[in-house]
Structure formats: structure tokens, C-alpha cells
Amino acid sequence: MEGITDPIYRETLMAIYPEWKYFSTDFLRLPTVGELKEKHIIKHFGENIYNTQEYFSKTYFQILTTLRVNNPAMIKLISNMGIKLLDLNLGCPSKKVNAHGGGSYLLQDLEALKIILEQIRENFSHSFSVKIRLGYKNTDNFLKLLEIFEYYKIDHITIHARTKQELYKGHSDWNYFKIASENCSIPLILNGDINTLEDINNVTSTYKNNGLMIARGALRSPWLAKEYYSKENIKLNYHHEIINYYNCLLQNYTKYLCEPEYILKRFKSFSVYIIRDLTLRKLLLRSQSLDNFINILGNAPLEQKASVPFDSFMA
Prior knowledge:
With 315 residues, the chain is an alpha/beta fold. It folds into two domains: 7-233, Aldolase class I (TIM Barrel), CATH 3.20.20; 238-298. It is 47% helix and 12% strand. It has helices at residues 7-16, 38-45, 47-51, 53-56, 71-80, 95-99, 110-123, 142-151, 175-183, 197-206, 216-220, 224-229, 238-255, 260-274, 278-286, 290-298, and strands spanning 23-24, 28-29, 59-64, 85-90, 127-135, 156-163, 188-191, 212-213. Strands 1, 2, 3, 4, 5, 6, 7 and 8 form an eight-stranded parallel beta sheet that branches.
């Protein structure tokens, strides 16, 4: 997710919750002027992730592009760097992105989409996937899109079960998972409002799929995969996990010499998702320093006190 899943965040989650099978970078916009440089790709991917086989092999590199971009040259560079998992973002609902012909805009411009898919397919021989929504303003093109993806031999499709117009409102229309499975032979990854163990069990038992992609649900409960793969879906101690989560993030952001102000900004952005108590969340969002944030979280009157203290690694 743009602005959230930076390399340090992903590296930390890979270490403390290895039960997640794959991770994805937030999307990288391929530039319309000039060309992408190898160092830029590595920075976005995360240098340590790129150079650590265990992390590298479970990271999808997601891109966002348009017809204005010199796609063949840049896709060749990505391929030559050894990246094996490439994902094209066709779901971003941002007005700015759509105005430039990228993201979910391409779900309505099928001719432009075909050209881009062909450019990528001709220059990238490894796993090439797409992440889509059900459509742009409506779902009229949904079956046509599936046919196009079949033609270009897309390796798998991640379906976020909303249109661009719906943004993140209401509930995803999971019925389209069934429609897709009945009209497409490509492996399907299901996405949208899958936030709890109950949601996971409901979706996997009801709809044919080759996996689930969890975004906001994973930000709310990063330990969700650990719970799912534990015997009988044993629920973890929420407050213990919260403290461990922030401790490990603090260690890694500090290790990479991030300034306290930057860490505080990141911690606040994470708290919007992971802190369920509204009063505590407001206090954290108002904190004026990293030490203040740590003290508030560590001393919060939680109903189940964590079994480990919150240590300030900035001290």
C-alpha cells in the first residue's frame, strides 16, 4: 500500500511474521520522462530484501504504467535484474493516477491495456500478474477483461471486488469471485474486505481460489497469517503482539538510521490501522515526539496488559 509498506516495514514483517507467503512492494510509477535506473528499483524493492534470497523470493515487484512510458526498455531492465515476480497495478483509484492513464483507468481503455500487456509479456519471461478491480465506473467490461488476460497468458489475477467508482465504500461484492472462477482458467487471488479469521474461512470455503491477498486487514492484524496457520486458528494475545510489532519496527527503523521525526510519522500512520481503541489512537496521533508516542503506548490502560514491556531503543 502506497505510503505504508516501505522496505523497512516489509522487512520487519517478513522477520516477525514469516507465515505470510508473499509480500508486495507498493507500486512504482514507471517514469514518462527518462528511464528507470537500477538503483531506483533496488531502493524501492529494499536493498536488504533484494540481496536476501529468503526475502527476495517472496516479494512481488508492483509497477504502475501507461502508454506514455517506454515500457519495453524498463521491463527489460527489471527482468535483467533477476526479479521473478512482476505485478501490474490495474486497481489504483487515485484521480491523479487515472488522469494520466494509469491504474484502474486502463480497465475502461481496453486497447491501451492490450498494448501494455503485450509490451510487458514480450519483455518479461517470468511470473507476470495483474491486480484489478471489477471495472472503472461499472462492471460491464469484467468478462472482457478476463478474456484479455487469458489471451496474454497472465500468470494470476488478483481481484479486488469493487469498481474504481466505489473506492473503498460499502462491502466488496464477493459474488464476482464466483463469476470469475466460472469464466476464467487463470489462477485467482481474492481480495477485498478480508479482515478476520472468519472472513478467511468464509471466502476459502465458499469461492474457488488459489489464494487470498490481504491489505488493510493485514495492517490491522499483521499476525493474521500466524493465527490462520496455527492449530485451530488460535487467536493471539492482541496486546502482546502490538508491543512486539512496534518494538521490532523501532529496532529496524533505528538500525537504518531513520530520524525520530520520520519514525514517529510512520508509527502514526500504522496506528490508524492497528490501534482499535479510539481514545488511545487519538492520543497516539496527537503525540509530539517519538518518546511521547512510546510512553503513551507502553503505559496505556489496556484490558489485557502485554507480557513484555515496551523498550525505547532511542534511549
